[in-house]
Write a structure and sequence with these properties.
The complex is a heterodimer. Chain A contains six helices and nine strands, in the order E-H-E-H-E-E-E-E-H-E-H-E-H-E-H. Chain A is an alpha/beta fold. In chain A, helix 5 links the parallel strand 8 and strand 9. The longest helix of chain A is centred in the middle third of the chain and has 12 residues. The chains are: A alpha/beta, B alpha/beta. Chain A: Its EC number is 3.1.1.61.
Chain lengths: 189, 281
C-alpha cells in the first residue's frame, strides 16, 4: 500500500509493550515518518527514546527539537511536557500550552495536527490507556480521509481509552496488536 | 464549550481565515502575530473561539473589530500563559553549579527573563540567586507581552496546589532549604515572600516588535521561541545577541535549538542537554 506519509501512534497506561511490538514490526526500509505520543511523567529524567530505540532493532528514534525538519524512515517521540504539532512545511512545532485530558503531550493534539498536514496519508493507531485522549484526534484523522485503528479493548491492559475512541468513531477499526503489526508491514511502497 | 464536543478543532477555521485574523489584529491593535508558528497559533485561536462561543471566523472578526474589551480578553487568552517553578530541574541544577559561580564575579548582575508569563521561573531564579548569596546585587528584568500575566506576576501569587510538585522540582535542582520558607500559604494560594521579588522589574516587551533595552549577563527565554517561525526566531536571537554582555549566557527551553538560527555562530554551547549557551563575543 503506497501513499502513506505518516504513522502516528498514541498510547497511555499499558501501551509500552505494544509500542515496542509495533516498532519491531516496521518494514525494514519504511519510507514514512512515525510519530509516537505517550503519556509520561514530566520533570523527571527519562530515557524513553533510548529504551524504545533499544527495542526497535536499529531504528532511528529521537525526541525532536522544535523546528526540526521531518524526514522519512524516522521515528519521532513527543518530548516530555510538550505537545507535538506538525507545520504545513513539514517541520516539528512544539507547544507548551495547557494539558489536554490532563496530558502534555496530548494524543488528540498530535493526531489533529498530523491529520491536517498529511490528510489521507495518515495511519493513526490508538492503544491502551485509562482516559479519553485520542478519541477527538481520531475523528480528525477520519474526517481528513486517514485510516483510524484502535487496539481491541479486549486486548488492552487499560481498555477505557480505546473503548472511548471506538464509541466516538464508528469507522475506526479495532484490531489486536498482532493484526496492527501485520498491517504496518503492508504500508511500505 | 458546547461546540467543542461536537466538532473537531480545526474545522472551525481555515488557514486563510487565520491570516485574515492576524492581519486584523495587527492593523487595528498593533500586535503582530504574523511570524508566529501557524500550527500552535491556529489551535490557540480555535480555543479562544470555543471559549467565546464564536462559531465562525466571521463572528470572531466582528467581535475583534467592534469590541476593544473583547480584544483585551482575546490577547490574554491567545498567548500561552503556562509556566512552572523550577521547570526542568536539571537546568536549574546546571545554573546553580556552573553559571551562577561565573556571574558572581560581576559587581552587579543583570538578568533578563524574556516571556516570563506569570513569573514562576523568575521566582525560581531569585531563590537560586538568594541561595548563592547573589540576590542583593542582582536586578532581574522580567518581560511579557501579556499585561494580565505581568499583573499577576507582580503579586507573587502561585496556586498552592502546584507547590508539592514545585517542591519536588526544587529538591531535584539541588535545593537543600525548606522550600516552604520561601512563601506564605493563604487559602488556595502561595505568596512568594517580598524579599525574593523586590529586585524584579516586571515590564511589557514584545519580542516581535520591541528593541534592545539593556545589557545582561544572562538571558533566559525558555519555551517562548517555540511559538515563533524561523524568521521571528532569528529576530529574537539577534535581539538577545545584541542585549548580552561579552561572554553573557543564553538559556533556552530543553527542546529549543540554536541550530536553526542564523545567530548560532555567535554562541558556544555550554551544556547541550539543558540548552545553555554563551556568547563568544
Amino acid at each position: 500500500m503506497a501513499g502513506y506519509k505518516a504513522v502516528v501512534i498514541g498510547g497511555s497506561a499499558g501501551s509500552i509493550p505494544v509500542v515496542t511490538e509495533l516498532l519491531r514490526a516496521l518494514p525494514l526500509n519504511f519510507k514514512f515518518s512515525v510519530f509516537i505520543v505517550l503519556h509520561r511523567l514530566k520533570n523527571v529524567p527519562s530515557s524513553m527514546d533510548v529504551i524504545l530505540a533499544g527495542k526497535g532493532k536499529g531504528i532511528y528514534i529521537k525526541e525532536p527539537d522544535d523546528k526540526e525538519v521531518i524526514q522519512g524512515h524516522r521515528v519521532y517521540l513527543a518530548p516530555q511536557n510538550y505537545h507535538l504539532l506538525i507545520e504545513a512545511d513539514h517541520t516539528i512545532s512544539l507547544d507548551y500550552s495547557e494539558p489536554v485530558h490532563y496530558s502534555r503531550p496530548s494524543i488528540d493534539v498530535t493526531f489533529e495536527s498530523v491529520a491536517q498536514v498529511y490528510a489521507a496519508g495518515v495511519v493513526a493507531v490508538l492503544l491502551s490507556g485509562a482516559n479519553q485522549d485520542g478519541a477527538d484526534g481520531l475523528r480528525s484523522v477520519i474526517d481528513q480521509g486517514g485510516t483510524a485503528i484502535v487496539q481491541d479493548p479486549a486486548t488492552a491492559e487499560y481498555p477505557a481509552m480505546p473503548q472511548a475512541a471506538l464509541n466516538r468513531n464508528k469507522s475506526a477499526v479495532a484490531m489486536t496488536p498482532e493484526k496492527i503489526a501485520s498491517f504496518l508491514q503492508t504500508l511500505n511502497d | 464549550m458546547a461546540i467543542g464536543k461536537s466538532m473537531t478543532a480545526h474545522s472551525l477555521i481555515t488557514m486563510e481565515e487565520l491570516e485574515d485574523i492576524i492581519h486584523l489584529v495587527r492593523r487595528q491593535y498593533g500586535y503582530d502575530f504574523s511570524d508566529y508558528a501557524r500550527a500552535s497559533l491556529q489551535r490557540r485561536v480555535v480555543r479562544c473561539m470555543q471559549k467565546a462561543n464564536c462559531l465562525t471566523a466571521y463572528e470572531l472578526k466582528y467581535q475583534l473589530t467592534n469590541d476593544n474589551r473583547f480584544f483585551t480578553w482575546f490577547i490574554e487568552s491567545l498567548t500561552v500563559n503556562v509556566t512552572e517553578m523550577f521547570r526542568d530541574p536539571a537546568f536549574y541544577k546546571e545554573l546553580r553549579n556552573s553559571v551562577l559561580p561565573k556571574l558572581a564575579s560581576y559587581p552587579t548582575i543583570k538578568i533578563w527573563h524574556a516571556g516570563c508569563s506569570t513569573g514562576e521561573e523568575v521566582f525560581s531564579m531569585a531563590i537560586l540567586l538568594h541561595e548563592a548569596g547573589l540576590l542583593n546585587r542582582t536586578r532581574l528584568y522580567a518581560t511579557d507581552l501579556n499585561p494580565a500575566n505581568l499583573e499577576r506576576a507582580r503579586q507573587g501569587i502561585v496556586p498552592l496546589q502546584n507547590m508539592k510538585e514545585y517542591t519536588s522540582n526544587y529538591i531535584q535542582s539541588g535545593g537543600t532549604s525548606d522550600f516552604s520558607s520561601y512563601y506564605t500559604a493563604r487559602y488556595e494560594n502561595a505568596i512568594i515572600h517580598k524579599e525574593y521579588r523586590k529586585n524584579v522589574v516586571f515590564a511589557m516587551h514584545n519580542l516581535a516588535t520591541d528593541q534592545v533595552f539593556n545589557e545582561f549577563q544572562l538571558i533566559c527565554c525558555r519555551n517562548v521561541l517555540i511559538y515563533f517561525n524561523r524568521n521571528l526566531q532569528n529576530r529574537a536571537m539577534t535581539l538577545f545577541s545584541d542585549s548580552l554582555a561579552p561572554l553573557g549566557y543564553l538559556a533556552l527551553g530543553m527542546k529549543e535549538s540554536l541550530m536553526f538560527s542564523e545567530a548560532r555562530h555567535q554562541f558556544e554551547t555550554i551544556n547541550p542537554a539543558v540548552r545553555i549557551y554563551r556568547s563568544k563575543i
